[in-house]
Amino acid sequence: MRSLDDLLAEGVSGRRVFLRADLNVPLDKTTRAITDDGRIRASLPTLQALRDAGARVVVAAHLGRPKGAPDPQYSLASVAARLGELLGTDVPLAADVAGDDAQAKAGGLGDGDVLLLENVRFEAAETSKDDAERGGLADRFAALADVFVDDAFGAVHRKHASVYDVALRLPHVAGRLVATELDVLTRLTQDPERPYVVVLGGSKVSDKLAVIEALLPKVDRLLVGGGMCFTFLAAQGHGVGKSLLEADQVDTCRRLLDEAGDRIVLPVDVVCAPEFSAEAATTTVQVDQIPDDQLGLDVGPRTVEAFGRELGGARTVFWNGPMGVFELAPFQAGTRGVAQAVGAVDGLSVVGGGDSAAAVRQLGLDEAAYGHISTGGGASLEYLEGRELPGLAVLAD
User: Fold this and answer.
1) Any idea which positions bind substrate (predicted)?
2) Of 5, 66, 124, 362, which residue is the least packed, with the fewest Cβ within 10 Å?
3) 62 is in an annotated binding site
């Protein structure tokens, strides 16, 4: 797989570079303002290196899940403004994805200039299952540039026009973010330093089942929190009240517990409330005493201590998924405590993107405490599952 440094060594001054970036940032539902610019900041090293080398950069990205047509609420206008602030230069936004305005603006770029295309998912062909339909859009992308740089690690598990098909049409390299993500994930999968502890949270066991199956033979401990823990607790015979439960996964969880023995560590206490609300009265109970009319919304303090002990001696840690509903103040303590324990690890600590990365920032934790904060939750998990990621496979071709 060729790198950005390989491309820079060849020289890119005056050349147009099609850069696929991951700028899929969260927006406030009312104001549509960016609430976490972490992914934009993560794109800067590759983007600035290209600018410094005199490239004319055409940036492609997606935001949210528009239905294959222009939708103002998913416009990249706010992203273009923030990107310009961080780069210290004007970043114009094309009025379309790869149409007349994109072509005109790309043709007018000078050395070191940056253009952001409108949300690539405004084109239905971007995510089409039809190779020819995606290919038609990729042809239009390729016409905008001379070379392709993929720095959108959060999208490399997608066989999309701006990720996969354009790489078949242009000379291509991996950007610095993709290279860093790949290096870290390789360290997690190939002879990690032990003890190796994985922390998994989030809502559903079904979403994490494949990665659990793939990691169990490799880890020393698998700590399970979040909503998914209640299906495991039910598999142990505990009542879980109104907590999130995937009844069809109970037998699977029971099998995993039998196979793993003490390598799967579950919560010992949980924070409960009668409803999903920041104003609800909370109680902390042992996992075998969850009231029938309550639902668990966070792991309790004894669980944080127990997980902290497991993490305290670890040399390699991968964490994906919050321990509770960290967006609401009464249910933040579990995620905060476990996140702090991950950050204190004397070794490689990896935050596996998605809600985990968002929690680190929302809770005001020091990002520098972690060895790596991934930008790609889904891509990270699929890589750890051992699946081939189309966006990486095409770069290696």
Assistant:
1) 22-24, 39, 62-65, 121, 158
2) 5
3) yes
